[in-house]
Amino acid sequence: MSQLLLVFCSFVMPFISTTEVAEPYTVGDKVEDFNLKSVDGNMYSLATAKDVKGYIVVFTCNHCPYAVMYEDRMNDLNDFAEKNDFALFAINPNDPKAVPDDGYAEMQMRAKEKGFKFPYLMDEGQKVYPKWGATKTPHAYVLDANQVIQYIGAIDDSPRDASAATINYVEAAVGSILHGEKPSISKTKAIGCSIKTL
Amino acid sequence: MKGFLLFVAFLASAALSAQWTSVKTFAKYDELAKEYLDRDDGYTYVINYWATWCGPCVKELPYFEQLLAAHDNEKIRVILVSLDFPKKMESKLLPFLNKHNIQSEVVILDDPKSNIWIDKVDPSWEGAIPVTIVYKGDKREFWDGEFDSYADLDKLFLSIHN
Lengths: 198, 162
Fold this sequence. Notes:
The structure holds two protein chains of two kinds. By secondary structure, chain A is an alpha+beta fold.
């Protein structure tokens, strides 16, 4: 019996781990495009943005205090992205059944209140965030023109006080990509709210 | 005499209902670590990172209180490290602690250099709360996410404690 188990482990398990469980993206991976509905009712993909030099994707939401603290900075980031021919997408990864505040109508309201000019997308069915390996809100990604991830992590180093930030990691990564370089900081960590599922 | 007893009872209940009047705040993770996280004193430390604004954290908090009560004659310390914002201590954290009559030790961690200290908690942690560390001496376990049941927490605790 134990021999059988050994056979199972050495022959069957590797197939399970390589074919069944897809590893989430990390820096250097090319992403599969998404197609998600925004608060304006339209569907958006990375491909929706034409002739850009790269992409910023931020998993964020309505309810998390850390996400809320970055709402104004998301508008600033969008201005920065537009100036540098980057496209910014925000994606709410939470299941509204788990967090009613993160429902589609609530997202529309928040986008209107805060004057978001970037797509604020709903990860309907929660199919996108696991592929990206997002674990929390906010969780930011910077991609180059080839849709290869060059940075994963926090937006800047001061969640509670924008004026106390000493570095904006996302803007620094965009700067590196524009210069044809790899970002000197490609991964950071920050406190956030776990992604809510049922 | 009856009036006096009533008065004492009133004082006692007032003391009970307003047990929490302040929470120690650590501005640096390393100071918190020195006080609670790098101890080797025979106690099993249960360190939970949470906040009043975090739904799953609040939901699992009773498990930590239950753990403390179940092992209160043993060498156990339960430390609830709150990531609530210090300016919300009066309006949010203290009322919460008093409302739920929290018996565990509670501190606030307010270190903005999260990119540095998150890795010190555990290199595998991305930064979403709650997370829990249980350690005794150099035996250590890291639990990423909430506990689904008290039994899960107790099992983790016993794996280190015994």
